[in-house]
Design a protein that fits this description.
This protein has 1250 residues and is mostly helical. It has 61 helices and no strands. The two termini are 81 Å apart. It comes from Olea europaea subsp. europaea.
Length: 1250
Amino acid sequence: MEKKLRSSLQSSGEEFLLAAAKLPFKSSKPILKTLINSQINHSNGISTLPVALHNFISQTISLFKNPSNSDFTASPKTPPAKRRRSLRHKTKYDDVAVSPTEDCENLRRTALEKLQIYAYILQLCVFHPKNLFSASDLLAAAQELHDNLILFESDPVLLSEIANLCEEWWKGNILGKENLISQSLPVILTRSLTLKKKVDVHRVYTLREAFTLFDFEDESIEDLKNLLIRCVISPLYMKTEDGKKFIAFLFGLSGQLAKEVFAMMKSQIPFGRKSMLEGYGEIIFRAWKAVEGECKDEIENVFLQELLEGAIHAWSEVFSASIRKVLGGFVNQRTVEGVEKLIFRLAEPVIFRSLQVANSNVRQNALHLLLDMFPLEDPDSTKEDKDTLLEKQFFLLEKLLMDECPDVRVVAVEGCCRILHLFWEVIPSLTITKTITRIFDQMTCDSCTDVRFSTVNGIIYLLGNPQSHEVLKVLLPRLGHLILDSASNIRTSITDLLLLLKDIRNFQFHKVVHLDALLSMLANDQPLIAQKITKLLIPSYFPSKVTEEEACKRFVTLIKRSPAAGARFCEFAVSGGASPRSLMKLLKILISLTLSSVKLSDKLIEGLLAGASHICDTLVKDVSFRTALKEELSSEKLRSLFSIAATTSAQSSVCNIISTISPDAVDGFFEECMGLITKCSSISSMERQTEIRSAHKMMLVFDWFDDMFEAMVGLLQKSAHGCHVNFGIHLGKQDIQSAKRSKSKFSIRKTSKSRHVSWKKSSKAVKHRFDEDYAIASGIAWQIKDLLLSETTRKAILDSEFLERAYLALKVISEASIVHAMKFDYMNASSVSAYTALTLHMSLENININGSKNLDSNNLFCPDSACSSPQKTISDLTIDHLLHCTNKILRASDYKKSEKLHSESLHGNRMATDSGQDSNEHQTGTDLAKQERMSNVVKMLTAVLKFTVDANTMNLAPCHQERCLNFTMEYLKFINMNLRKYSICEQHFTEEGLKEMCLCLKSSFSYAAKLLNVVLKSSEAALPKLGAYDLVNELLNLFISVEELLGHGYASRFVTAIKPWVPDLILAFGSCHLLMKTPGESVHSIASGNGVSTFPSWFSVLAKIELSEITDIGPEEDTDRYPNSVVFTAFKRLIEMITERLKSNDHVLDSVGAIFLVGSQHALESKHFYLVLGLLHFICVKLVEHKDEEWKKLKLMSASLEEIYRKVEVEAEEPSNGEDGRQILQTARELLEPVWMSCIYHGGHTMEEE
C-alpha cells in the first residue's frame, strides 16, 4: 500500500488523493506523515497536490451538502460486483433495494471520512519540515474547510482536525491566518467548556489575540459572547492559571462584554466557593493592570465601587464576606503601584460614613472592610495627614468596641487585636495603651458571651507578637476572673491561654489565674477543661524529670490541698504525659495512705479513693498491669476500703475499683452496692449520678442485675400505690396485687418500717412519707432511663420478668407527675422520661404487656372507647395516655378551678379534705416555687413531645400525626403564654432555672421541626400538612418570645439548633400553597377574618426590622415618621438564613412570597401602614429584589401583587388615613411600582389599558 501511494504521489496529486481516500483514517496517518515528510524535491505530484487538495475538498463538501448529486470525479464509482455463478446461492436479500435516504447517509459518511484524510494531508503540507509547499497555494483549501466547519458538528474527529489546522496556522503566523479564525475559534472554545481538559484551556489562552478580530458590538456575535461568559462560571477556567488570565483578557475586548462578564461574576458571588471568589478578585485585578482608558475607569469607578458598596450594604454577613473575598484581589496587592491610592479613593468616602449609621448590619460590614484595608491611607499625603487619618481610624475602632450591637463588638475586639499584632511597632504607644486597656478592662467583662470569647482569642493571637509581651505581662492578670466564666468555651480559651503562657519565657501562668481557682475548675469543670488544666499542672505536681518518689510526694501535697482536684488529676494524668509505671507507684501510695492509721477527713478519703479508681481505669487497659492490680488490691484490702468509705461518693469509687479489676472474692459487697442504688432521692448532681453508675457497673459485672432490678421495681410500685391513694389514679390489676405482696428480700430491709405505719396517723406524716417515696421513685426512674442507654443493660431490662410491672408503675407515676405538676414542687420529669424511653425500646423489640386491654378500662388513655382496641400497640396506648394527661394541663385556663374539680372527682380519698388546702398553698407559693413548677412542666411536656416525634419518625404510631401536631401547637402556645405572663408579672427565673428552661425550649423547637419533617414526608391526607402551617408560625412566635423576653444570648443558641431544619420550616410555611390546587384561595382561607391581632407576631417583628433599615436608606429620610423597633438580632439572622434558602427554588419562593403578600393585605385592611411598608420592603428588597427576570417566574406573587398594588394606590389617596399614613403608603407604592410596571409589560398590557 505504501509503495502504491509513493508512486501515485510521484505521478500526480489527484492519483495520490484518490489512493489515500481509500485508506482508513487512523491506520493511514503514520504512513501519510512518513511519505509526505520524506519528499525533498518538487515532483509533478508535489506541485499539483495543493490544487488537487482544493478541488477534492470542494467537491467532497459539495457531495456532503447535496448527496443526491453524486457525479464528480473525486472518487470513481465502485466497480460492479462479480456475477454469481449459480442461482442457488441467491438469498432473499439480494433483490432488496437500498432506500434513497440510506444511500444519501452512506454518501455523507463516505464524504466525511475522505475529508478527514484531506484535512490531515493539508496539515502535513502546511507544516512540511522542508517547506516544499507555499502557504498561499494551500490557503484556499484550508479556507474551504474552515468556512464549512459548522457542517461537520456530527463528526468530532473531522472537527478536531480542522480546528487543529486553523489553530496551528494562527500560531505559526502564516499568511491568511485572519481568514481561519471566525469558525474555528468557537469550536476550540466550546471544546474547552465541554471536555473540561486543562490542555484545551491553554489552547484558548494562546489564541486570545485572535478574539480581537471580532466586532463585539455586532448582533451576530451573541453566540460567541455567551460562550465567553460561560468561561466565567467554569470551574476549570477558575482553577487554571491560563483560564484566569484569559478571563482577565476579556475585559479589554469590549466595554459591553466587560459589563456582562462582571454581571456574571456578581451573580455568582452569593453562591461561589472561596477559591472561585478569590479567583474573581485576581481576575479583576489582572484586568485592571492590563487595560487602559475608559475600560480602566469602568473597572475602578463602576465595578470596584459596586463591590465596595455591596460589601457594606449586603443583606447578610455571609454575603458581605463573599464580596470581600473578591475585593481581596486588590487589597492583597496594595504594594503594587497605584493600588493603595485606588483603594483609598474608593473606600474612604464610604467606610467612615457607614461606620456611624444606625443600621448595625451596615456598621458590622463596614468594620470588616476597614479591618481588611487597615491602615487606610493616601500614599501621596503628608505624614501629618496620615497620622490624623490613622488617629481617626483608631477613634472609630474604640467607639465600635462599645457598640450597642454584640456582633459589632465581636468584630471590633478581634480586629483591634489583629491590628495590634500586625502593626505594633508602628502604632503610637499612647494609642496602644488606650486600646489595649479598654480591651482588658471592659471587653473581658462584656455582657455578651461571644464578645468575651473573642476577647480571649484576640489576646491569644496578640501574644504571637513578642513586642507585646512586656505590656501583656502587666495586663494579663486582669483576665483571671474568666476562668470562672459561665460559658464553657471561654473557660476553655482561658486554659489554652495559660498553656501558651507556660511555654513563653518570663510568663508565669499562676500569676494570671490563682492556683486555687485552677484547682476548683479542675475538680468541677468539664472533662476537656480539666484535661487542659491537668496538662498545665503536671510539670509542677507530677513531673517526669524527677524520681517517682518525689513525683508522688508532690502529688500527695496536691491532693491534700484539694482532694477533688487531685482525683481529677489522676483521671487525665496519662493524657498529660505521665507514664503508666509512675501511676502504678502512685496507686500503691494512695491505697497505703487511705488504709493508714492516720485519721483522714471524709473529703480526703473521697479524693484518694476517686484518684485510685481513675488510675485503675487507666492501668487496666494495659494487659501488663492487670495482674499487678489484682495483687495490690486483694479482697481483704477492698473490704477494708469499703469499711473506711463513709460517704456514698467514696463507696462508689470502691465499687468502681471492684468492677474494674474483677477480684475473685466479692462476697459481702452486694448490700453496700444496693445501698448506693436505693438512696437515690437526690440524684440531680453529676457526682451522684456517677456514683450510681459505678454501682450499676458492679451489679452487671457480678450478675446481680436481676436482683437489683427487682428491688428497683418494688420501689416504683410503692410510689405508684401512693399516687393511687393520694390522687385516685387507677392501678392495673398487677399493680394492685404487687402492692399488697411483700417486696423482695433486698427491699424489705429498706421499707419494712414504712410498710407498717398505721393509717390512723396524721395526714401530714402520710404526705411526708409519700414525698420521700416519690423522690426515691424519681431517682429509680432516672436510673432506668440511664440503663436503657447501654445495649447490655437495656437487653437485661427488656428480658426481665419484672418489665411489665416497671412499665405499669411508671405509667401511674407519670400521670400523677403531669396532672399535678403545677400544684406540687416535688413533681419532676424523671418518671415521664423513663416511661417514654421504656415504651420506645419495648416497641422496637415488639414487646407488649399482658392484659393490655385492661389498661384502658378507666378510660385514661383516650376519651374514645375505640382506643381500647386489641390491635393497638404499646406505643399507641402510651401516646393516648400521655396526650390525655397533657390535655388536662394545657387546656386548663384556671388551674385552681381544675384542681378543685379533680379533687371532687376522687372517691374514697383519705386526703381529699386536705388536698384542696395543699393545692391552694402550692398555687399561691413563692415566686421560686412557681418557677420550679413551671420548669418541671416544661421538662415533662418536652419529654412527651420527644416521645411522640420519635414514635412518628420510627413509624411506631403512624395514625397519630394530626393529634401530635395539635399537641405540639397547644404546648407552644402554653409556653408562649407563660413566658409573657412571667414577664408581665416581673417574675425572673434564676440563672440555673433559665438555663434549664432554655435547654428544654431549644430541644422542643428541634423536635417540633422534626415533626414537621415527618408530616411533610408522609403520604397521609393533606390535613396534617395544612396544620404544619400553623405549627411553623407558633415556632417562629416562640423564637420571638425567647429573644424578646429571655435575651439575645439564648436566642442566638436557638439559631444553631434551627439551622438544619430551615428547609422544613420553609416547606411547612408554604404548604398551604404547595399542596392545594387553588393555592391563592387556601392562603386567604387561613387568614380570612383575622386582623393584625391574630396575625403571627413574627410578621410584625419582621416588618419592624425592615423599618429600622428603611430609616438608614439616606439622610434625606424623615426618620421621625417610623416607629423605633426592638433589635431582634438573632431573629434577623434566622430570616437571612430562610431568605437565602428560598432564593434557591423559584417554586417554593413563589408560594412563600404569596403568603407574605397576603399578610401585607391584612395589615393594609387593618390600617397598620407601618407593617405594610415593612413587609413590602422585605418582599421587594430582600426576598425577590427589583429584577424583571426573577418576577417573571413568580406567577402566584405576580397575581397577588396586582391586588395589593391597587389597594395601596387607593389607600394612599384616602384623606381619612392622615398625612403620615398617606406618606407611608406612598413610599410603599414607590417600592412596588417598578415591579408592578414590569408585570404589566410582561403580561402583555399597555399603559392605555391600565
